[in-house]
Design brief:
It is a single chain. With about 325 residues, the protein is of the alpha/beta class. Helices cover about 20% and strands about 30% of the residues. Strands 9-8-7-10-11 form a 5-stranded parallel sheet, sandwiched between helices. Strands 13-12-18-14-16 form a 5-stranded mixed sheet. It starts with a strand and ends with a strand.
């Protein structure tokens, strides 16, 4: 974890605040790639993931933006109401679960609301490299559009298409038009509310886009709920030779933790991919949103934080 200072706090919209974080001494921060996020220790009970929206060439600050969500479990409200310039925060080094392919012929970026943050970083990189790209930014209204002035004045403003719900009668027309020409060397990246991303993906698939060309960033999902219909199973750890019983009312991650097995995890909802683990044998019951449907069909990785087993036992490389 890094101890970083809040250097600036800006009001982007009435609901979105942005923060610049850095070392007090001004030394360089750990490098990152477009699409990366950091874990921010909000308080003793809450840690949240926020995408970085600055250009990766800037090693002096990490820039994040936080939407004050009315359905928040406490994280965004605490950030808005308690984070002040000069405060010191515990922050993880950046991790990238949403990597950008800069070698393809063309890139389409689709942002819904606060989902603009990682895509701004991507747009800056794509422009700097001279890549062909479009950024489609969907918001409720012009007034609720974070970073609009920065984007309009940017060197890549000609690549940006704004879509305001209060001015656009049918968003489907614009999305279908932008996705009309899929090919193996065109990739799509989207971030925003789950419903928005699902709509973009469903539209792309209806136009014959391949799953391997579709990428999304997800930080939240429906809570993992277990009940009597969930079967128990044996979790076999290939490297250690251990066999653990996973009852119907516990996740595999909980059982691994109780057994003292060290495994990376973050969201505990199957969206971040931190706990993705190689499967040696058995068939997972995939419940994550991190893997694509084609990746799930291979059954060679599973997320112990939420997924289970269709077979009586599941062997994993731990």
């Amino acid at each position: 974890m890094l101890d970083l200072t809040i250097l600036n706090k800006n009001i982007e919209t009435p609901e979105i605040f942005s923060f610049e974080l850095g070392f007090k001494c001004g030394k360089d921060l750990p490098e990152f790639e477009a699409g990366s996020h950091i874990d921010v220790h909000v308080n003793d009970q809450i840690t949240r993931q926020y995408s970085l929206f600055n250009d990766p060439v800037n090693r002096k600050t990490y820039k994040i933006a936080v939407l004050k969500d009315p359905n928040s479990r406490g994280g965004s409200v605490a950030v808005h109401e308690t984070f002040k310039v000069g405060d010191t925060l515990q922050v993880s080094s950046p991790r990238n679960l949403f990597p950008l392919n800069t070698d393809c012929k063309r890139v389409l970026l689709f942002a819904g609301g606060i989902g603009i943050t990682p895509l701004i970083s991507m747009a800056k990189v794509l422009h700097r490299l001279g890549c062909d790209f479009e950024l489609h930014y969907h918001t409720r209204s012009k007034a609720s559009t974070a970073f609009i002035d920065e984007l309009v004045q940017s060197a890549y403003s000609a690549n940006i298409f704004f879509h305001f719900s209060d001015e656009e009668n049918d968003k489907s027309v614009a999305i279908k038009k932008a996705l009309a020409n899929p090919s193996d060397d065109v990739h799509l990246y989207t971030c925003g509310p789950n419903g928005y991303m699902d709509y973009v993906f469903d539209t792309a698939r209806s136009l014959s886009w391949h799953d391997n060309n579709l990428h999304k960033e997800v930080f939240s999902a429906a809570p993992v709920e277990l009940d009597e219909t969930d079967k128990s199973f044996e979790l076999k750890l290939v490297s250690s030779g251990m066999s653990l019983h996973v009852p119907h009312d516990k996740t595999a991650l909980e059982v691994l933790e109780e057994a003292g097995i060290d495994i990376d995890f973050s969201c505990e909802q199957g969206v971040c991919g931190s706990c993705l683990t190689k499967v040696s044998s058995g068939t997972p019951d995939h419940r994550d949103q991190f893997q694509t449907e084609s990746e799930k069909s291979l059954n060679d990785y599973f997320t112990p934080c939420c997924s289970r087993a269709k077979t009586e036992s599941l062997s994993i490389d731990l």
